[in-house]
Amino acid sequence: MFTVWAPEAERVRVRVDGADHAMTAATGGWWRADVTGTDYAFLLGDDEKPLPDPRSLRQPHGVHEASRVYDHSAFAWTDSGWTGRPLPGGVVYELHLGTFTGGGTFDSAIERLGHLVDLGITHVELLPVNSFDGTAGWGYDGVLWGAVHEPYGGPDGLKRFVDACHARGLAVVLDVVYNHLGPSGAYLDRFGPYFAGATDWGAGLNLDGPGSDEVRRYVIDNALGWLRDFHADGLRLDAVHALVDKRATHLLEELAAEVEELSAAVRRPLTLIAESDQNDPKLVTTREGGGYGLGAQWSDDLHHALHVRLTGETTGYYTDFAAPGALPKTLREVFFHNGTWSSFRERTHGRPLDTRKALGHRFLAYLQNHDQIGNRATGDRLSATVSPGKLACGAAVVFCSPYTPMVFMGEEWAASTPWQFFASFPDPVLAEAVRTGRRREFGRHGWGEADVPDPMDPATVARSRLDWAEPGREGHREMLELYRTLIRLRRERPELADPRLAGLVVEAAPDDSWLVLHRGALRLACNFGAEEVTVPLGGTADEVLLTWGAPGPDLAGQAAVRLPGESFALVSTGP
């Protein structure tokens, strides 16, 4: 049986294994045909161009070609004993499947899961793996959301990866994009009123206009499919601020309710993590409390405050975070902009978070992520310009904060490989438009256009792949051990993972050159500056847990610590 929603069509046929069959109109704009076969595509009206299924589960020959029938029940899962992992207390690892390993497939990524287990990771977040045009890309230009990108290994490859993760105690979060479709292969509007308006990245969805009931169902069914049929443990929802929905019940709230029902049915925690630039606590406020009820959201403000402190960059959206007190305020309140003036936006921005009730594990903290690296002109990581001491201080703040830490692949060993923007659109006109547009964009910001890597050049992808020989080399080995230790201490010392924000104490120099983060009886003292400073601990040190570039056990008994430039000390204090 083949079905498709095409409410405005007067005639629909399905081409199955080369033969055309008339479809019968059913209720609600749906069409059906009781036919069997393997490869299929739809023909609308008198148009002879076959189109792939909007709800396709497999695209073996790319997003412009016929869909293929896929049977979820045929896969032999081995994770029946998997009960999931809650996000509180976890550590997330963000990776891009195509550049995580030299092979760039699910199977080659499985071979590196031992590294993540040894590091102490609990949740693996995959950048989008749905079908997009071309072979290489970030995945955010997807157009067939239910089909797994074939060059990565297709749907069975993803299932093998999830199964392998679960066998090693790792939860899997999939990055999904519901705010727009990519520029090549987006045929949804041929079938019905799927589109409404546009975003900066492509066509947006009709979530609240005529015909939007089925469009919303399309999104929610896709999300539930990843969690139910592919056994994913959560979804990271890309740029939810670009979802235009004026209904009384927002799509995100509706989605959260249905995911909660599914979680009860499959008897394991399922987490929705949003990316939003609105600084609105409504996203992670419970539905009973008038919010949308999502599990967590990214904390860009903390990233920006840390980035300015470590690099000194103050251009673009970093301008606001050069203000004295930006880092301690963001650590205490999550949002730096919480109803305050943003010079970058030239307006007030954000809404205060009630730290008396909010829990820190609902916000992901990170030094780097795919956006903050890949959307720089040359895709340079912090390790390209920031000293190991400052990197160590930044990592210590993230892992000792009350928030859920997230690591971008390779960050844990200060990878020297960049992570650059790349795509591989076969259409030469589109490819040139992307290439030219990116160079002009950065040219306006002071970069020489020749310095911006060609996103269509396979060499750009090759440069962005991790070098797995690096973790054992000097300069990388030490950073990797620091990350392992920080994650271990966060697991062993409950104070470090305590998500309560009420009463969180952060002391800092007037210029933020040093800070002390109080975590119960523990103190993290960081000196970001180049000069030695003496930092009060707010107690007497009785045990030294970890240092970088700072005095070791001889800190015991001291009420203050002398920190050389670019160093930190994590100590336990007595009364």
From TrEMBL:
Catalytic activity: hydrolysis of (1->4)-alpha-D-glucosidic linkage in 4-alpha-D-[(1->4)-alpha-D-glucanosyl]n trehalose to yield trehalose and (1->4)-alpha-D-glucan
SMART domains cross-referenced by the UniProt entry: Aamy
NCBIfam families per UniProt: trehalose_TreZ (TIGR02402)
Gene3D superfamilies: E-set domains of sugar-utilizing enzymes, Glycosidases, Immunoglobulins
SUPFAM superfamilies: (Trans)glycosidases (SSF51445), E set domains (SSF81296)
Record-marked site positions (Transition state stabilizer): D371
Localization in the cell: Cytoplasm
GO aspect biological process, one term: trehalose biosynthetic process
Any one cellular-component term (Gene Ontology): cytoplasm
Similarity section: Belongs to the glycosyl hydrolase 13 family.
Top EC class for this record: hydrolase
GO molecular function terms noted in the UniProt entry: 4-alpha-D-(1->4)-alpha-D-glucanotrehalose trehalohydrolase activity
Keyword Membrane appears in the UniProt entry: no
Protein name (Swiss-Prot/TrEMBL): Malto-oligosyltrehalose trehalohydrolase
Metabolic or biological pathway, per its Swiss-Prot or TrEMBL entry: Glycan biosynthesis; trehalose biosynthesis
Domain called Glycosyl hydrolase family 13 catalytic: residue spans: 90-490
E.C. numbers: 3.2.1.141
First-listed, main subcellular location of the protein, grouped into a coarse class: cytoplasm
Residues annotated for substrate binding in this entry: 236-241, 300-304, 370-375
